[in-house]
Specification:
By secondary structure, the protein is of the alpha/beta class. Helices cover 47% and strands 10% of the residues. The strands form 5 sheets. The chain has a 17-stranded parallel β-sheet, with no helix packed on it. Strands 4-3-9-5-8-7-6 form a 7-stranded mixed β-sheet. A 3-stranded antiparallel β-sheet has the order 10-12-11. Helix 42 runs parallel beside helix 43 (1074-1085). The protein is globular, with a radius of gyration of 35 Å. The two termini are 57 Å apart. This is NACHT domain-containing protein. One of its GO terms (molecular function) is ATP binding.
Length: 1237
């Protein structure tokens, strides 16, 4: 839809409401900024939202054929009308007397929503129609759901009818993004105009009422649908409970009763530790409800928590009547105990959740013991050995005849033999026992293939802190003081806090704590060594063996090594179970069985015994113990170990950590040697600015083996710091050991740039940073981007350290921790600083005039500061600018000032203008985007460009420049001889302005970069602008993204780059140029001799367009960067590009994210490796490329800064464009695999 058409429609809507609606209600409130914010959001949702949904509906159902489409769905819509989902007025609009006169223009937003959901072939998103879809879901269905979600979110403020500025901006941007995706780019500019358009108080109340009316209508519709669902469910239940048994089937009452008794006896007690026979509990006494959350099918986020054992069948937006429930969780989280509790409660006749189906028979099946079909499993695991054949057959017939009242509980899907996995697929896909209710449990990796078919997906997360605390106090109910002491130890140990999430470990910790007299060890390795000693002591006591004060891990060294070897082999195969055949020649009196649980064999046919570790971490510990002994005996060395386990190293990381921890406990030099090897591996990534696997591993090793040995800790930190060769580091993960890394930097001599961008940082991390800066002599740039609160004392410590530091010249702080008080303290340091040249305090939120004035005082005397950033601090207003300008009159060093997104207005701009007019200021770069100014300020800025001879860079975005302002600025450019960069994005610049800029470019000979993104130049504007570009020889970078230029505009730009020999960078993102436009640009590339970077992302380019670009790449010899993200080139397009790149010798970076590329296209890139030596980076996220095998084992000897090498192809690569136009590459730690040896 064109921008003009949208404005016309919007104007018509508003005009109709103003003139034809009932008289405006009297204003009963005083309008404030906050109430206006709320009204603007209401207007955005009601007016623009209805237009967008109408456009979406019209695209699916073209207006010319709408009457035919409605006739096709007449029966379905009539049912909705009978059920009062559609009211008579809406029905009349759908089916007027003259069918061909029907028009979506008459459909209100509630009706449009009902139609989109019911007759447009749109299925609900993964989270359903009434919940917020995951961020990665950009489908039409998801955005329709988002409109309703945002409506409800905004309506949540209805009581006060006010929204503060920060919340308003977040809501506005979220809603805008959704509406633009649904309706097209044309809506973007119009929505920006609405954001600041003046609103009469009368119409503020009017839009509030309209949103309220929409919410009420929608709720009524939902209530009717819920009522229908409820009645349908009652009918189904009535039918299922009243259906008589077939004549040849008898009710197996006695057999069901025997199964109940089996559950009460077999599942009624929990006894997890064979080495402690008295440690067994009645399930009702010890069971504590673990945390279970329902997740959306994408596994991106938790949706809601399950609050009861039998609440797993609760209806949700994705399924109104779940039949199949999958519960995933790590080992030891309580999945098996949950299954025991479910069947035990059924056997005991316990009351169930209201959503739990009416069940007559529960069948608990242990997947590991299954070998045949479902009937064989039931017979083998549940039925008596002496059952008669006739009774068995009757029981099976009963199950088939009463499926809706039968619950199958299948525990341990991930442990099922491979030959029976298909059985579970048939069950969840309703190909077998299609009406049975089913609960399955599994580790996530064991249920990937069937999870998408299950109605409900749950995650078992173990204990939250309250659960574990309750369990501990229940255990120590007779020793309350000891329980309190254990809780204190746990609170002080982050490792333990993470481990007690696991219910089984919590139980073990309680038991072992009774034996330890001096409290728990601090390191995980030492804790497991103590637990091992404890278990071995009990074994000796049980066997009547003397142990005195011996080191029992040494006494039973051979047995533990055998256990560790078995554990390691099982881990490599991802096995939790260990068959008894793996213990040849071992008697039942061996101590190794003390660490294993005997799996209860529910099978009548299988006589062998099966074991498993009580918790996976014990399996990892014993594997680590085995490896450490191998190294100590010199039967292997660490370097050989890393080489041999390269494919499994990340999977075995906990094992290696235990290995290093045990070596640190037994032989310090061994631990230091291993750390040195790991550091060498980390240095292979020294040019990559992100923390790599080996660096994280090295820090975790230090933490694991030096917690209780301060001397070893100092040696290891010193070894890491002095040998690490990194130059830049970005930390973006809160789990990264920041404090340890900062300690290592105290002695490091290579790192120059440090970026810490984590959600939260506390005082302790800032103190560590301060301590490091006191002694570090190489860091030149530090950026801290984090939320939190830093005390004045902490900030003072940081300032004191900065005072000592003589090398830091760039300091950046972002986040709400930095307010006026913190800025005053920093200002005190800066007055005396002799090295700091750049300070950024952007997006701090709490900085106001007081803080900015303190910085202005610094500028009066500073002789080193040349860049000051204060953007997006709305508390900074005109008084701040007045102070800054007074300082600029005497300052001779500041060259860059960023005040974008602050609270300054015309008065503040006027103060800046007065300073810049004199040319006495040293400012060369000024950033004044997104400020609330009038046309007068725009006129003043244009005047500055005409008379100032020092300013080189000006960013003036989002300031409603319009046609009039553009004319003033363009005229000034004709006279300007110093400006090199001008950015005017988001300024409502129209097509006719293309001529204005064209005339300027014909005259101006100094401008090198022009950004006009997110305006409304359209094809005509691009054509007009091209005239000037053809003769201009100074412009190097041009950005016309999101300007609706289409294929015609692309053709004009293409004609320009055929002849222009100066332009090196061109951005045309989001212009819908399609294949025709891509073809025109490609033809121009064949003859262009200057362009190095081209961005055609988001342009609806398909395979044909990609083929045109590929043909150009075969000939072009200058292009090095090509971005084609968010197009639809598919496998064919990807293959065309790869064929061309076999001949191209200049392209270094290619981005093809979100392009509908599948495995064939990705395979083409994979095969390109042997044919291209210049391509260094390929970004392919958001493509369904499947599994191409392990491409993570290439050697990263030379990794260009700021980029990931071309290979391996990575699904975890994402990009973010910085303010400077360069790209940072974000890589998950899973992407950074391990280099070849």
């Amino acid at each position: 839809m064109s921008h003009n058409l949208f404005n016309l429609r919007l104007y018509s809507t508003v005009y109709f409401r103003k003139t034809m609606a009932t008289p405006a209600p009297p204003v009963s409130f005083s309008s404030t900024k906050e109430t206006t914010n709320y009204a603007r959001l209401c207007r955005l949702l009601v007016d623009v939202g209805s237009c967008v949904l109408r456009d979406t509906f019209d695209r699916i159902n073209p207006p010319s054929d709408l009457h035919k489409h409605l006739a096709t769905h007449h029966t379905k819509l009539q049912q909705l009308q009978k059920k009062k989902v559609l009211n008579p007025t809406q029905w009349g609009k759908l089916y007027p007397a003259i069918p061909t006169s029907v028009s979506s223009k008459n459909f209100d937003i509630t009706l449009l929503t009902v139609l989109l959901r019911n007759i447009c072939s749109l299925g609900p998103p993964a989270t359903g129609w009434d919940a917020l879809p995951p961020v990665i879901d950009m489908s039409t269905e998801a955005d329709i759901a988002r409109v309703k979600y945002f409506r409800n979110t905004v309506y949540g403020h209805a009581e006060k009818a006010s929204v503060d500025d920060t919340t308003f901006n977040v809501y506005w941007q979220d809603i805008k993004d959704t509406l633009v995706r649904l309706g097209g780019p044309a809506y973007g500019v119009a929505i920006d105009n609405l954001k600041n358009e003046c609103m009469d108080p009368v119409f503020e109340e009017h839009y509030r009422e309209l949103l309220k009316e929409w919410k009420r209508d929608d709720d009524n519709t939902k209530d009717k649908l819920d009522e229908i669902d409820q009645k349908l469910e009652e009918l189904i239940l009535k039918a299922s409970t009243s259906t008589p048994l077939p004549k040849d089937v008898e009710e197996p009452t006695k057999l069901i009763e025997r199964i109940r008794q089996l559950y009460q006896i077999r599942e009624g007690r929990i006894s997890p530790f064979p080495w402690c026979e008295f440690f067994n509990f009645d399930i009702n006494e010890i069971f504590t409800m673990p945390t279970i959350v329902r997740q959306d099918k994408t596994r991106r986020r938790a949706v809601e928590q399950v609050t009861s054992i039998t609440g797993v069948f609760k209806p949700h937006s994705g399924c109104s009547k779940p039949r199949t429930v999958l519960i995933e969780g790590e080992p030891g989280m309580g999945k098996t105990t949950y299954c025991q509790k479910v069947v035990y409660d059924w056997a005991d006749g316990k009351e169930t959740d209201a959503s739990f189906p009416k069940i007559k028979l529960v069948l608990l099946l242990k997947c590991h013991d299954m070998s045949g079909n479902i009937w064989e499993a039931i017979d083998d695991q549940l039925l008596p050995q002496d059952i008669e054949e006739e009774e068995r057959e009757n029981f099976f017939k009963y199950i088939r005849a009463n499926q809706s009242q039968v619950l199958l509980v299948c525990d341990g899907l991930d442990e099922a033999p491979t030959n029976v996995v298909e059985l579970f697929s048939r069950l969840v896909e309703s190909r077998e026992l299609s009406k049975c209710h089913i609960i399955l449990t599994s580790r996530q990796e064991g249920s990937v293939k069937i999870s998408k078919f299950c109605d409900t997906l749950l995650q078992m997360e173990g204990f939250v802190s309250d659960n574990s605390h309750n369990y501990i106090m229940h255990y120590f109910k007779d020793l309350e003081a000891q329980g309190q002491n254990l809780l204190k130890d746990i609170e002080q140990n982050i490792e333990l806090r993470e481990l007690i999430v696991n219910p089984l470990f919590t139980a073990l910790l309680c038991l072992v704590y009774e034996d330890l007299k001096s409290g728990l060890p601090l390191s995980k390795t030492q804790l497991y060594l103590e637990i091992t000693e404890c278990i071995l002591k009990r074994f000796c006591q049980k066997q009547g063996l003397s142990h005195n004060n011996d080191d029992l891990t040494e006494v039973f060294k051979e047995e533990l090594e055998q256990l560790g070897s078995i554990a390691l082999k099982a881990l490599k195969k991802d096995k939790m179970h260990i068959e008894d055949s793996e213990f040849p020649g071992t008697t039942g009196k061996s101590p190794l069985f003390e660490f294993l649980s005997v799996q209860s064999n529910s099978s009548k046919r299988r006589s062998h015994t099966c074991y498993r570790f009580s918790h996976k971490s014990f399996q990892e510990f014993f594997a680590g113990l085995y490896l450490s002994n191998q190294i100590l005996k010199r039967e292997t060395d660490f370097e050989t170990l890393l080489a041999s386990e390269r494919q499994n190293l990340k999977f075995l990381e906990p094992v290696i950590l235990f290995t290093v921890g045990i070596l640190g406990h037994k032989r310090e030099n061994g631990a230091l040697s291993l750390l040195h090897i790991i550091i060498k591996k980390a240095n292979l990534f020294k040019n990559l600015k992100f923390h790599n696997f080996y660096l994280c591993f090295a820090l975790n090793c230090i933490g694991e083996c030096s917690t209780e040995n301060s001397g070893l800790r100092s040696q290891m930190i010193n070894l890491l710091g002095t040998n690490l060769e990194l130059q830049e580091m970005m930390i973006s993960d809160n789990s990264f050991p920041i404090k340890l890394f900062l300690e290592a930097l105290q002695v490091n001599s290579t790192l120059t740039h440090l970026f810490i961008m984590v959600p939260v940082m506390g005082d302790q991390s800032i103190v560590s940073l301060a301590n490091m800066l006191q002694v570090n002599k190489t860091l030149t740039t530090v950026r801290i981007d984090a939320e939190g609160f830093f005390s004045a004392h902490t900030v003072q410590q940081l300032a004191d350290s900065l005072m000592v530091n003589k090398t830091l010249n760039c300091l950046m702080f972002m986040g709400n921790a930095w307010g006026n008080d913190a800025v005053r303290i920093l200002a005190g340091y800066m007055k005396r600083s002799e090295s700091l040249s750049s300070l950024d305090l952007n997006y701090c939120g709490d900085i106001g005039d007081a803080g900015a004035t303190a910085l202005a005082e610094v500028l009066r005397t500073s002789t080193t500061l040349n860049s000051l950033g204060l953007s997006n601090n709305p508390g900074i207003g005109n008084p701040s600018v007045t102070s800054l300008c007074e300082a600029l009159k005497v300052n001779t060093t500041l060259s860059s000032l960023n005040l974008s997104g602050t609270g300054i207005s015309d008065a503040g701009v006027l103060s800046l203008v007065e300073v810049l007019k004199t040319n006495a200021s040293s400012l060369t770069s000024l950033f004044l985007s997104d400020i609330k100014i009038s046309h007068q300020s725009i006129k003043s800025i244009a005047e500055i460009l005409r008379v100032n001879s020092t300013l080189k860079n000006l960013k003036f975005e989002g300031n409603k420049v319009g046609v009039g302002g553009t004319k003033l600025i363009a005229e000034s450019l004709k006279a300007n001889t110093t400006l090199k960069l001008l950015s005017l994005s988001r300024n409502n610049i129209k097509a006719k302005c293309g001529h204005l800029f064209s005339d300027s470019l014909k005259v101006n000979g100094t401008l090198e970069s022009l950004t006009l993104a997110n305006n409304a130049l359209c094809s005509r504007g691009a054509q007009l602008l091209s005239d000037g570009l053809r003769v201009n020889t100074s412009l190097r970078h041009l950005d016309l993204s999101w300007n609706f230029i289409g294929s015609e505009g692309a053709e004009s730009i293409a004609e320009t780059i055929r002849v222009n020999a100066s332009l090196t960078s061109l951005e045309l993102k989001g212009n819908n140029i399609g294949d025709p436009g891509a073809n025109k640009v490609s033809e121009a590339l064949k003859v262009n001799v200057s362009l190095k970077a081209l961005d055609l992302s988001g342009n609806a380019i398909g395979a044909a367009g990609a083929e045109s670009i590929a043909e150009a790449l075969k000939i072009n010899a200058t292009l090095t960067f090509l971005h084609l993200n968010h197009n639809v080139i598919g496998d064919n397009g990807a293959q065309s590009l790869c064929e061309a790149l076999k001949k191209n010798a200049t392209l270094t970076t290619l981005h093809v994210c979100n392009n509908n590329i599948h495995s064939a296209g990705a395979q083409a890139f994979d095969e390109l490796q042997g044919h291209n030596n210049t391509l260094k980076e390929v970004a392919m996220i958001m493509n369904n490329i499947g599994d191409l095998g392990d491409h993570g084992d290439q050697e990263f000897n030379e990794v260009p800064m700021g980029s990931l090498p071309f290979f391996p192809i990575s699904c975890d690569l994402s990009l973010r464009c910085t303010d400077q136009g360069s790209f940072d590459v974000f890589v998950s730690k899973d992407t950074l695999m391990l280099p070849q040896q």
